[in-house]
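Problem: given the chain below (391 residues), write out its structure.
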Amino acid sequence: MLKANKHYLELKNSYLFHGIKLRVNAYLEEHPGVELLRLGIGDVTRPLCPAAVEALVRAARDQGDPARFHGYMPECGDENLRAAIARHYEKFGVKIDPEEAFVSSGASDELGDILSLFDPASPALVMEPAYPAYVDASVIVGRRVITLPGTRENGFLPLPEKGLEADLIYLCSPNNPTGAVYDRAGLAAWVDYARARGSVILFDAAYEAFIRDESPHSIFQIPGARECAIEICSLSKTAGFTGTRLGYTVIPKELERDGVNFNRAWVRDRTTRTNGVSYILQQGGLAVFSPEGQRQLEDNLSVYRDNARDLRRALEKAGLWTCGGQNAPYVWAACPVGIDSWSFFDLLLREKQIVATPGAGFGACGEGYMRFSSFASPEVVEEAARRLERL
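Solution.
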């Protein structure tokens, strides 16, 4: 008789966004016609840049022309797109081989798929508050999860502690949900730890385009990282591809553990389990990395950056402690004294008609905080900021 993967039964119910939806729907039933200011979801609202749209349309037309039709794409990615990704890293002073860049259908997919490279018996370290998929993807395969608390005292940027034993290390910088960003010294501490222990860092760089200061955009800006890190990136938030789905993963050729070269192993995995990302989407991604595409996407990024700045200012005027909002699209704010995150959610919804995300949904360390997303129109953010200032 077939046996099921019982680890699925170990997953917690997805109460966060389900709970938000229930509360919001109940409020709207009581107050029909009310317009809510939605700052909870991490989805973008600005359209794709014109260069990407033109490339997508042109590629779709290619598929209707026998002379330009494309069937299966290379499983690891179109060579032109992989070369463009490698050139993108040169802006950070990082040199990668195009064969180290793997085109994916997005960071969320890759964060789960990449775990097949590692023995499920190897524990994973997650720094809370954290993107819930880190925990859930590990639980599904029966991997033990260790948590390291991020707190106001450590700026939500915990560093390796004495006695810490972790084989896989999830790092996200700029962080979702806190908006905190590791500096070079912080990332170097984790690289040194991983190299000394023989661990591997899974570096989630989905929000690197929001960095405006000297903070690292890539883990590979840190010496020694090529021996201990995999970087997972996305065009979702940087180029508006949330509904288009495209990302990339960088696995250095020298990264090996236990006799397994992870770059070669991932080539074997992708050529076995995928048929590659579609020609149309990869052409859109190639346009994003063009000089014109890079100029155009800055227009959208500047809107979100300004939104984040305005939200942070408004929350601080209201007397709340904040994190993020400077090099990240999220502002992480402490709830008023004596109010838990779900109660603060209800207060904002009922008194200000603002929807944000309760920090409790990102792990125990998120309790007492609220995440505000800048992925909204400037008009929505302006009105929300006005209401928050009077909080």
